[in-house]
Amino acid sequence: MNILKVFGWIALFLFAGSLQAKKIEIIDIRCENQECPMGVQTLKPTFSWKLLGDTRNLTQVGYRILVSDNEDLLKKDIGNIWDSGRCNSEISINILFGGKKLLSAARYYWKVQVWDNQGVQSKWSEIKSFQMGLMKQEDWAPARWIAMESVSPKDVVYPGFQLAGNKVDYLEKEARMPQFRKPFQVETKKIQSATVFISGLGHFELSLNGKKVGDHFLDPGWSKYDKSSLYVTFDVTDQLLSGENVLGVRLGNGFLHVPRDSTRYRKLISTFSFPKMICKVHITYADGTTNDINSDHSWKVTQSPITFSSIYGGEDYDATLEQRGWDTSDFNDISWINATEIFAVGNLSSQISMPLKVKKQLRSISVRETHPGIYIYDFGQNASAIIALKVKGKFGAKVVMKPAEYLTKDGLANQNNSGTPYWFSYTLSGNGTENWSPSFSYYGFRYVQVEGAVPIGVKNPQGLPVIEDLSLLHVSNTSEEVGQFACSSSVFNNIYSLIDWSVKSNMSHVLTDCPHREKLGWLEVAHLMSSSIAYCYDIKQMYTKIVNDMKDSQLENGLIPNTAPEYASFPHDFRDSPEWGSAGVILPWFLYRWYGDLSVLEENYHLMVSYVDYLTSRCKYHILYHGLGDWYDLGPNHPGYSQLTTRGLTPTALYYYNLNILAETSKLLNKELEYHKYTELATKVKIAFNAKFFNVEKGYYDRGSQTANAIALYMNLVNGEDRESCLKQIIADIHNRDNSITAGDIGFRYLLRVLEMEGASDVIYDMNSQSDKPGYGYQLKQGATSLTESWAALQTASHNHCMLGHLMEWFYSGIGGVRADKESVAFKKFILHPEMVGNIYWADVSFKSPYGEIKSKWEIKDTSFVYKVTVPVNTTAWVYLPGVDVELIQESGKPIKEKADIQFIRVENGRSIYEIGSGDYSFSISPY
Asked: Which of 77, 255, 465, 588 is the residue whose CA sits 20 to 30 A from 286?
């Protein structure tokens, strides 16, 4: 009897221990999709978190959020600003704040607790903070916009114009680059917090007591300055000193003003104003008192050593003009003038997109003297970048550095198709070893041509400056990296790198087309590359900013120009092409589907409706005839306008797609009248599209191009009975061309999507694994290190473009098999459907979805197939395993039919489909 009691106690102890072992952990808590955001510009910020658990099939069933304006209170579990109470919900993303009114510039603290479906209550998460921005324009008062000088009203030009064919009126006096300083006193008592709110246009660099504040590059983000400007928020609590402190600010032109100097490259002419700034420093002391330092007439200003600043033409710096210590308290500014106060223009709001920073430093792989006195530094990688110069020489000596993507036949920098002439120059002060990097301009390059100096160790009879080091600093948007891909194919791994470098190089303040010649936000790239980029980087903030740029650039008649912000009014189809402007409808929908944020549809419904109504006004019997079409398709002529697909087909297909998105959006937002309106109109467009473009006798669209049939299939314009013939035509066209690509900028993404959806990933493999025909492999063979503008890597086009990078999406959704479920948002439910194609025998993919990290790793070894996956807590997945014989399938070494936590769904198209909840799984099939 005693023995039974002992065993009973042991069993009870083990059972209790097993219950104790079950836990759920909260990680990666975020406000407004950032860890500790500053400058929050909404009174209803959102909260999100991810979960980890030690058992399978875990879901959240409830949460409680606390928000406090006092961290000590929050540590006592008191949310004096908001206590949500227990909310029964599975949702752990985009939870709207619902507490007391949030105050401008105030800092708040928050944490969250959850309950899971196993009855486990989590510990509280770690505490994180968020700080509000200046919510209203009045909150900036009494700070004023200030400048060194104002542009004459007659010289203001916006929107600007492209130079070709346009007369340029040169300015009587070009803008000088100013530097401002402001001494101020800090009381000798404990500081609780000190925050700088600052906008310096076009771009600024802020220093405090002689040290740069932050590590950003090209702050603030680009905007349409007549409508809105952005400010940046910095915490400078640890940089303040008791007594006198000094703020220093340098400004550059950016897109605010493009210099009209004809000796330097200019894509366009545009002048909103000369450089200007506004600043407020908000200091809160521990005793609750506050003090503000505001920009006004009392600030001092003079010309900086930056003698030329152009986003298109480069930057010149004259170190002989430096005034040492200008941004410290020991400096005498008696020779400086007082700043000029100027009127505010447009709305001022917080920069929501992630800042640009130096992401990587590349050393040269070779240095050659290709002509007497001319040295070429090769950094081995084409990237968006600036240079870092370390040089020693005489006072007044000048070093000129010309970046380029590739070289001429005689070994000189070739800028013919990347914007010429562009250079950086540095004039030495002669004070020992000098270090310099440009502050307000960047370029896309691999090579740098150096004139006026010699590399260290080279004979120097002329006594020229000696370059002790010259490196490439890759600059890019700092959106978090969320995806990883690798497979057994070295070709595909190299293609991944090729595309990724172009993505990184064009992730700036907008998604640019190229990092040199244009630097503009061409909108077709933004919507067509959205999924490809989102698998690799968290672009929620960046794309929200792009949508805001479209709102600022939209015309009164509803037209969304091809570029946003619109700095130049390009002619005809280059301003009004539906394949580009449709980003105004597609991107809000994409942001909702990928990140699960319904508010983006609510806030941009007018943008979407206005554009669709504009397209409707341009239709003739429900067909659109304008636009660039399938830009840069591979036809018989030099790439440009669509060659293989009638130009009316692609804009009408996008118009139909927009109508369906708008109908679905209207339904989500409970706008029943609009839902029926756009649904009925879409039906009419589909009928007209098929009547106009479908060849009934041949069973395909238009002239049978890859683009024509693929876009019709993807947009569901094809009637059910004709889908098979259209797909056959696509595959036949590819095979008849010996697996060649012809689809261009617009069509290629849809071609890949259709082939994947229709189970033809083997065709995608065949098209993209070769190197003897124009395509990715061909570009690699030509020596490209980033994606080129043309399939054929033409030297008459850019060699750093991300507009054709759509294979990136297939690497994740096809080879990796990670796909969003059509009935869910934000990967709350997703698909795992790996494609084992060609000679690929393993692949390893991971993707940090909004709910957590998804992993998909498969390998074919001998006669076995092994598939290891991770499903995040609070999500479910359908996994499509190859084969129909369930007797051959095992999970974690046991027959899958014995696994109670795995649900069999059905067999379909040669795959066995199972539903799985959160956890790690190891499937195996043998023989395979």
From this structure: 77
